[in-house]
Amino acid sequence: MIVGYKYIGMRAIVLARRDFRENDQVITVYTTERGKLDLVARGIKKIIAKNSAHLEPFSFVDIDITIGKEADYVTKVHPVDFFVPIRSDLNKSLMSQYLLSLVSKLLNVGEEDKRIFDLLISWFRFVNSTEFSGVILLDAFVMQFFALLGFQPALEACVVCDRSYKSMMKADIKGKHKPGFYFSGGGLVCEDCKLQKRSIGEQIIDCGLREVSDMQMLLQADWRTVVEFAMEDSTYQKLHKLVYEFVVYHSEKEIGDWEFRF
Ligand SMILES: [Zn+2]
Hints:
2 domains; five-stranded mixed barrel
């Protein structure tokens, strides 16, 4: 990277900000072109800078960045969307903050993926525009985010013997077929493979076929469909538990359960 080089008008979403030295702050952003970046904003506390308000977490901005020797600097900020309806709704704000801390924790500086940027923006735009503030929106985001990180579970057939989901459904009359979720194997396993793998000490959690199809929905549906998807509370609890265990398994960092926060 060339010192003094300027990026003009880079699209970014603010993930976090923290104090740095006496008058400066470090702003963590996710950008279209360079992924996650830590940027120094100078003099942000000294002057009641008009830039300052735009650098709140989950602000969507255009920023100019100057590459420095020791750090990169924000030199200009232009607001694109401040997501005011989210900020005025406590539940939505908490969900958004949780989401950003998760994203910030799991991404490394400099890793770029335009799809992650698009996923973030589409989620914030949707949450900003809907009346709904249920935590299933976080479950859906988390599944789609993990899929982009390379952890897309295989749910259409047993990952060991390839028996199809449909064939398991046929055997499931009266809830007789008891499949499992095999994290290190990458997804769904039929009952026979579950028992066989367990007997050699592999870790597999029990799950119903309903949760598996609901998880598929979270992975593939747009946000509106997720919101409109009718689900009883007990069904949702099972789905959430599966999503959470999936995330914990694939995260190297400690992740708190988001369901108890809202
Ligand atoms: Zn199998």
